[in-house]
Amino acid sequence: MTNDELQLNVADELFWDPKVDNEAIAVSAKEGTITLRGTVGSFRQKREAKKAAERVYGVVAVDNELEVRILNEQRRDDADLRGDVLQALLLDSLVPSTVDATVKDGFVTLTGSVDWQYQRAEAAFVAGNILGVIGVENDIFLQSPTPWPSDVKDSIKKAMERDAKVDADNIQVETANGEATLTGNVRSFAEHDAAVAAAWAAPGVTDVDDRLTIFY
């Protein structure tokens, strides 16, 4: 696939996705890497634009340079915005009460500690959905849960083998001191994300070194 063809396919996908206002988004492609430039009206749209680009066949990386510009009537004081973020976090049963948030000029910083990566990811997802947020920094500390008595590396590989989206034979896993390192080739962003999620789900894992390559 040529750069022009890939660029056009990504632009079509952005147009197709009703969650994305593509009118002010410029797309460029080079050797499988997509760069998104322009402006969107919310942080969620910026996130959704990246997801849309990742769905396109032939894309191996997305450089998301979109700028979030909040309309004047949707601008919020930092104190009010922080209150809405904290309220949303409180109402989400997946986010523990140990998570806190600060806001400066519309930019949210999440702090505190959790036991699992999915809780960190959920907190960032929830905060990014609040109207008026222009960015999210996830500084939540991941505590180390008690690992299973069995080998963590073997547990991760078995989880990948159970997942229909993952070809576990093409992925290598190494673990040391709470870090799981993933290497090898995957066929899509969906397979990439599933493999990374499997590694994060293993008890005792506090960091994932993602070295996977998307190969078509």
Written description of the protein model:
- This protein is α/β, with parallel strands linked by helices and 216 residues long.
- The protein is flat and about 55 Å long.
- The longest helix has 14 residues, at 3-16.
- Strands 1, 2, 3 and 4 form a four-stranded mixed beta sheet that branches. Strands 5, 6, 7 and 8 form a four-stranded mixed beta sheet that branches.
- The protein contains six helices and eleven strands.
- The chain has helices spanning 3-16, 43-54, 78-91, 117-128, 152-162, 189-200, and strands at residues 25-30, 33-40, 61-64, 67-68, 99-104, 107-114, 135-138, 141-142, 171-176, 179-186, 207-214.
- Helix 5 (152-162) packs antiparallel against helix 6 (189-200).
- Strand 10 (179-186), helix 6 (189-200) and strand 11 (207-214) form a beta-alpha-beta unit.
